[in-house]
Amino acid sequence: MPALSTDHRTMTVTQDQMGRTVVVIPDTDVRDLQAEVTRGWTELYGVADGYSREFLPGTWAYDMTRAILAAVAERAEDERDRREAGGPDPRAIVFVCGTSGWDADARWWADYDRTKDLHVSGYPSKVRGKDAYEFTG
Fold first, then answer.
1. Which residue, 5, 34, 66, 78, shows the most beta carbons closer than 10 Å to its own?
2. Does residue 64 contact residue 8 with C-beta atoms inside 8 Å?
3. Cβ neighbours of residue 135 under 8 Å, at least 6 residues apart?
4. What distance in Å separates the CA atoms of residue 111 and residue 107, rounded to the nearest whole number?
5. pLDDT band at 113, cuts 50/70/90?
6. What is the DSSP letter of 91?
7. Threshold 0.85, pTM exceeds
8. In whole angstroms, how far apart are CA 48 and each of 17, 35, 44, 73, 122?
9. Is 52 exposed, middle or buried (0-12, 13-18, 19+ CB in 10 A)?
10. In the chain, pLDDT over 70 holds for what percent of residues?
């Protein structure tokens, strides 16, 4: 995995038109994160959408997921998102997308059908009782 930015201060944390928190990261980062999330994705048919494999310490996906949660905990407009992302078992029901997949002026997806590859499946969370992160949803 290339040494991509996992600095939460470079991420944009905003809200869409419906008041949902959105984290916008560079396109290259979001494509690589989506690849990590979908590799080993487990579907839970009839129960929930599914979950990614666990991202362990020392991996780029671990650092990126942790940075996304730190950005939400620090800068989300929604108080519940900030609290949950900054808690002892951080998680956040937020959307993660790439810069080209977000229209900042409209506060909505930019040509979603054309930019589906710039949206990460699921929501970031820490695996309870472990030093690991995953995406669920």
1. 34
2. no
3. 37, 51, 52, 65, 120, 121, 122, 123, 124, 125
4. 12
5. very high
6. B
7. yes
8. 25, 20, 5, 25, 11
9. buried
10. 93
